[in-house]
Amino acid sequence: MQQTPFLPAELYGVIGWPLGQSLSPLIHNTAFQTLGRDAVYMRWEIAPERLAAFVDSFRLLRMRGCSVTIPHKVAVMPHLDRISEAAQAVGAVNTLYWRDDCLCGENTDVTGFMAPLLARDLPRDLPVLLLGAGGAARAAAAGLRAHGFSRCSICTPSDRTHLALAQAFGMQPVAWQDRHAVPARLIINATPLGMHGKAEGESPYDFAGARTEGRTGLAYDIVYNPLRTRFLVEAEAAGWQTLGGLEMFHAQADAQFLLWTGSHLPATARQALEAALRDGEERR
Fold this sequence. Notes:
Elements: E1 10-16, H1 24-35, E2 39-45, H2 51-61, E3 65-68, H3 72-75, E4 82-83, H4 85-90, E5 95-99, E6 102-106, H5 108-118, E7 128-131, H6 135-146, E8 152-155, H7 163-169, E9 172-173, E10 186-189, H8 207-212, E11 218-221, H9 230-237, E12 241-243, H10 245-261, H11 267-283
Parallel strand pairs: 1-2, 1-3, 4-6, 7-8, 7-10, 8-9, 10-11, 11-12
Antiparallel strand pairs: 3-5, 5-6
Helix pairs in contact: 1-11, 5-6, 5-10
């Protein structure tokens, strides 16, 4: 049967519950269009009780790939045939793909988080402070350990949720009130503080205090919306180099696209992403 414009040859998408204003469809569909690929990437809001049925449908329809977000990153793992070492280390999957007729799970958040750091060739004995203990923080901790960063501290506002993560990845737990006393040269915000729609305008770290101690380094915010968080603005004002979450988001999407298609994202995908984020900031 001849293909029609309404029946793409390849079906991809993202699942979550609830599924907010994800920019994944924009970046992947832009890539497909640029490369002339007969494919589409969709949004699927899948309630937790429907996850198993979705995976069955994924197999039956032979969907080509899927991004996985909250709350399915852990729950989807027992439904897969293979799980990568990186995903096992993190304890979560954010990407479904096929290899040798096996449905596989990967976690490209680790690759996405580490890509901009590895590009800077930082010394592995650099003192690191990780703020947060959620899924993104776990991916960051796994990436730091895998690449030999040995002097890592971690803390959270609750003073509790980071303890298991510290033990699992060999990090030094620190009380939230003592975070500014850690002589870190790489400070990573993996909390929701500063994120649009949640705690925009807030920051988990006081760089003015760090500056008075004569310390500078690299401030890395995994939040990508807005592009310039308070965390980054204040770090730059205090003389720190900065790295925004757009780099991680793009790198993890690029790793997904490579798994699915064997190609990297074209430049147009990054351009579309940046334009959408700038447009959102201008509207606010």
